[in-house]
Every structure is written in structure tokens, then in C-alpha cells.
């Protein structure tokens, strides 16, 4: 029966083997054998948004918690698309970085780039314009219905004419007194409005002035005009085929209770369902009651998103339950995207897109292969150096590196399943750096053993004394490395966190492997004749260690 001192290294080796077995057994139960890959390895898009309306009095930073609110809204929009492992983080004091794997560039831009300022305005004048060349990035939208039952409540307006339409073609049955517009024959050159804000209670009775008609005629689709809620708005439809003069905002987007996408029963087309809160439902009911008696275009209700009319349907009957629908040329993706933008509200800040970086899945695969090849080259170089310089001790180094790699891989897989850790390209770089750190621990330990032998100790006692002297150095070295990784992880953002996390993880595992595997294995090997008696290929040969003749004699006398 082995003595306690002889059994201690065996116990530590058994513990390591049991931990590895437990880790891979857990992976088998979860049926998860591959680590999760980050955006730069499996493909995706990263967008950097910069806030435009910063507070000058705060030194250029965002006032209050507006940036965090915007981050949360964008996170909700992206998560609602069903895209897993997305990352929305605050960068600096006025930027938000959005990283989403396996998502098209334009789809992500449309989702996160909209400020989603939603408004409902009455239509006063509508004029068809010559459509420009189609933009593939623009999602066409059609006319919504207002029927609570899910069926369209009216057809789009009839044949377009060359003149602006705004005069009713028959008697009004709605009981309102909105006069027919009188248009000037020559549009003036000025564009803009100095009109005072219109109170909300006067919105339904508001009438456009001659200056409003002049601005309408002078406006060209694409011109920038102020989008002020309590003032009229001249804008174009989303597809650029119609120019509209709209009244002040009647209902704001914050009056929406819910928005969802779906296909109504008996229909094949996707729509967006809207449900208003109580105040918004009352305003919507009053407006549709008034519009139902008008004729085109003054029976139309425009839905304006970020200053652009995404639809302007006709209303044929009052809608009093606060439910409406937006229908048109939607597919599942575009309908769900619009519903998500409306559902989660408008951003408290206006953003501009500073950069968009797209990584294809094939490019990510190439980067992963390049990272693996770089790591393999580093590992081979370490092993070649070990064979040349340490000879038979190469067995200890190779076995320790295998154990470290096995544990590292298992931890990456398990952390990916439990906390969502995703391996990215900087993370691979951190793992490659860790190979050097592990080799450094071996060098410290083995050189201490060689020093003890040169100082006159036997090989067996040199292993124990060398470990006592090397252990504090190894622990301090790993502690400094771990501290650096923690500080970098806390202060860094984005993919650099992956480097810091992987570096910290491998540093901890390096310390575990050296204490629980490398040293116990060395204690066992030194008891063998090959290493204990200093075979010339063992790496502990006296001449290879540079021991003088007197030292060689002492070693022969000690026989170990």
C-alpha cells in the first residue's frame, strides 16, 4: 500500500481526470459539443449609432438616462425579430453599438435606425408625382384599412391627375365645414413655416392657409422640412409617388397600446394591427367619424413614421373601438419589423449611423480556420522547443498542454450554454496568448529543478524543493495576468471583452493544471529509473544540466 506522501500526487491526478469526465459528461447530457461562435466568426452585422441631439450643457453627453432607454428599445426591437445572441451595448457617452448574427445589413438598419416618431395626421391635399427609380432597400407599403373586423374599409383613390386634389367632388355628409382648398397659380420660391403651434383640441377643425398651399407646391420629395407635431407637414409617401399636405398631429405614437403583425382570417396578405389607448381611441373615433363623410382626399388619414407617410388610407365609416389595420405589400418580415418598431415606441434620441460592418459566414469561417492554424503553429513551436531543450521532460509539457486544452474547450462549450459566452476572433487570440503563459509556467518550474540539482540536491529532492521555490512565482505571474484580464474586461467594450474573458479563463486553468497535474505528474515520473537516475535523454542528465564533476559524483552517490 502506498504511503500518504506517495498517494497524494495520484489523488490530484484522479481529481483532474474526474473533473474532465464530469465536464464532458455534462456536454453529452446537453448534446452540445461545439462552442458558440461570435459575430465575427459566423457572420452578421454590426452598426454603430451616434446620438445627434446631445445636451450642450452636459459637455456633449446625453442628458439623463436617454441613452440607456434608447439601448433598451433597440434591444427589444432586435429581440422581437427572433434573432438570438444579439448584443446592444453603450459605447462612450453618445454611441450605441448593435451586433446581430446572421441578419441582412438593410434589415438591421431599418430596424434600429428608425427613431419611430409615429404620428396620425389628416390629409388635406394629395398630388401624384412621377416615381423615381426604385430603391431596392425601400420596403413598399400600401394603404391600410380601418375596419376593426380585419377587412379593408376602402379602396385607394381613383385615377391620378396632374393637378393637386383637395376639393370635394360632392356634398359632404360628415357635418364638418372644411373648405375646399384654393391653390395659387404660381408657387413662390420660399419653403418653411413660421406658423404658431395648433392646440390639440383645435386639430380637427384646423384649416390650411394660403402659405401652407404655397409651401406644398414648392416642395419636392426628398426636401428636408421641419417635422413639428403641432404644425402642418408637407411630405411624400414612402415610395415617393404621392405628395401630401397634412394637418397637425392628431394622435401621437405614444397613444398606441399594441402593434402586431398577422394575416386576417380569409385573407392571404400580411397586415399590421394597431390598438390605441383610451385617449387615442377617442381621438381616432372622432377623426374617423368626421372623415367618413368626406370625399377623396379629405377622407384620408395619414400614418407618418419619422416624417414620411407610410400609408394614407381612405376612411368610409367611423372606427370607434380604437383598433385599426395597416395593410399593403407587406411580407412577414416587413410587417413584423414595422409592428416591432411601433410596439416598442420611439427612441428618445435621434441617431445617425456612423458605421456598418458586415461579416459573411464564409469570411467568419476563414477567420476561424486562420485562428486555429495560428494556435496550432504556436503549440507546435512550443513542443519543438521543449523537445530540444528539455528532452524527456517534453512528456510532462505535452500532457499538461493536452489537459489544459481539454479543460479550456469544455469550459467554452459549457459557458456558452449557461451564460451565453460566444467565442470570437479576439477570444482565439487570448487562447493563443495563453499557450505562451502555460509554457512560461513550465519554464519557471523546470528551471528551478535544474537550479536545485546544480546546487547539489538529488533529483528527487530537487523536484520538491524546486516546486516550493517556483510555486510563488507561478501564482504571482498568473495573478497579475488575471488582474490585467479583469481590468480589461471591465473597461473594454464589444469584441475586446472576448479577448479579456478568454485570457482570464485560460489563466485560471493554467494555474489549476500546473498545481493539480504538472507537479503531481513530475513527482511520479521522478520515481522512475529513467528520470530518477538521469538518463541522458531524460532532460535531467547531469552533463545536460551543466553539473560539475563534484556534483556528478554526489548525484551518483545519491542515485536520484
Describe, in plain words, how this protein is organized in 3D.
By secondary structure, the chain is of the alpha+beta class. The chain folds into three domains: 4-35 and 360-558, Up-down Bundle (Multidrug efflux transporter AcrB transmembrane fold), CATH 1.20.1640; 44-111, Alpha-Beta Plaits (2-Layer Sandwich), CATH 3.30.70; 117-330, no CATH class. The protein has helices at residues 4-30, 39-42, 66-80, 105-112, 210-218, 278-291, 332-343, 361-390, 394-418, 425-454, 459-491, 496-525, 529-532, 542-545, 549-558, and strands spanning 44-51, 87-91, 95-101, 118-128, 233-236, 242-252, 256-262, 271-276, 301-305, 308-311, 323-327, 351-359. A five-stranded antiparallel sheet has the order 5-6-4-9-10. A hairpin with a 3-residue loop joins strand 2 (87-91) and strand 3 (95-101). It is rod-shaped.
Corresponding CATH superfamily of the largest domain = Multidrug efflux transporter AcrB transmembrane domain
The biggest sheet amounts to:
5 strands, antiparallel
SSE ordering:
HHEHEEHEHEEEEHEEEHEHHHHHHHH
Low-confidence stretches: 1-7, 134-163, 165-194
Beta fraction: 5-15%
Any idea what the shape is?
rod-shaped
CATH architecture of the largest domain: Up-down Bundle
